Amino acid sequence: METLKKKFYITTAIDYVNGKPHIGHALEKIQADVLARYHRQKGEDVFFLTGTDEHGAKIARAADAAGKDPQAYVDEYAAHFISLRETLNLSWDDFIRTTDHKRHWPGVEKLWRKLAQAQKLYKKKYQGLYCVGHEAFVTEKDLMDGVCRDHQKKPEMIEEENYFFKLSDYTEEIGRKLKSGELVILPESRKNEILSLIASGLEDVSFSRPRKDLAWGVPVPDDPDHTIYVWCDALTNYISAIGYGRDEAVFETRWGGEEVAHVIGKDILRFHAAIWPGMLLAAGIPLPKKILVHGFITVEGQKMSKTIGNVFDPAELAGTYGIDPVRYYLLREIPSGEDGDFSIKKFEERYNGDLANGLGNFVARVATLGEKVSPVPLPQNEEMMKEIERVRALARQYIESFRLNEALGVIWELIGYGDRYINDTKPWAIKNDTATLQHIIAGASVLIDAIRELIEPFVPDTAQKIREQISVDGDMIKIKRGNILFPRLVG
Questions:
Q1: Whole-number Å distance between alpha carbons of 297 and 141
Q2: What is the pLDDT of residues 238-294, one digit of tens each?
Q3: d(CA 251, CA 249)
Q4: Tens of pLDDT along 45-91?
Q5: What is the pTM of this model?
């Protein structure tokens, strides 16, 4: 009887299509990709979702300013995000778009009706400050000198009748689930941030906009004068993509798996850790297991800005330096749950230091010496195996606690161990003693094979290139020198 595989469902936030992707988008996609590849490596049934958020007033206005139909406008920008799959060697299983009438809209409409049936939606007139950049109502405390902190624009005063969702009904229940660990938020500081928000009481949230003011979106079921607001539209992608509203059996199988994890930025934590759980509880849908929260990327200490001209295109970086160096830098230099900084200088230092002189040089040394005596038998080296197991256990612990940068740090300790092993045994100095040389090379090759396995979720192309040079086949190791993994940057 076939054993059922553990299910792991991982998502990124869906990106707003008001510009081309930058390295901040790349960071989130790559982090989720590492987790998807890691869980596949463990033999789990993985489903990895990403996509684009394509409705809202900001899109409608931008399309109008560009003289384009909104659908044509979002199609153009969505294509840039879809292209990240190849640009960054991402392994997502599906890409959902909120303008997809067949795959997304049925789930949105079903969830709205569920909330209405639960009597958690009501209409009221509302007057407030509306930030088009955020596609959200804001309060005075969200502003600095009367303007939005993020968009540097004064919000509009709007008075209108909207549907509201009774999020306040779920303040205590969400708090309990967070405190009990039923819903895990990593890092811990982000969990504390949400608990602090909950302690002051969650407020009901606006759930629609008048159709006359916002026609670009999903109409409210049975009330065509209103358009469903971003919360019920965008957040629903996580369940609409896997069948909610279309194929309930598929949805229940995937969402009801052992682990559902969202990878998101810290700026949308409140939406995912308060509003989204409230919606799910109201609709009788289980909560996700984990919310993994990353920080922002600055560029040489400054916020990324088109005006400053410091917005880096991941496609251009990958074209210049290679895909795996871009993946490696973002995963190693940027702490997974915190803010981090990018600069070409630091990027090139990491490339030369960690990749060219570190991993690349170690593999080249062993492959060059080993090719002469290949194949070699697997060695017996208890001390080396203990070191490999120590690193493997720590790397696993760091990955599963969303500390990807620390996982890479400990893996690179194994490379340092390997370099010291080669320097101490001096295989290049051995003459006329094939058995001793083979034993030394075999030990170094076992280390490389372990490193290759550990780095595969992070830098998959590099792992494959290493496998082509050094591979374990039964009780023998085959070694064949290949091209330099990371040519050293000069200049």
A1: 25
A2: 999 999 999 999 999 999 888 999 999 999 999 999 999 999 999 999 999 999 999
A3: 5
A4: 999 999 999 999 889 999 999 999 999 999 999 999 999 999 999 99
A5: 0.94
DSSP 365: H
How does strand 205-206 pair with strand 156-165? antiparallel
Residues 208 and 75 sit within 8 Å (Cβ to Cβ): no
Structure tokens at 293: 């929260």
Contact call for residues 471 and 481 (beta carbons, < 8 A): no
Whole-angstrom distance, CA of residue 426 vs CA of residue 422 = 6
Each residue's pLDDT tens digit, 270-282: 999 999 999 999 9
Amino acid at site 194:
I
**What average pLDDT does range 376-395 have in this prediction?**
95
Helix (H) or strand (E) run with residue 248 in it: helix 248-255
Q: Where are the alpha helices (DSSP H) in 88-170?
A: 105-117
Cα separations in angstroms, 312 against 28, 164, 212, 291 = 15, 39, 38, 27
Q: Which residues face 219 on adjacent strands?
A: 227
* Structural tokens at position 184: 């895990």
Give the span between the Cα atoms of 394 and 398, in whole angstroms.
6
- For residue 405, give both structure tokens: 């940068």
Nearest alpha carbon to residue 486 among 300, 299, 327, 297: 327
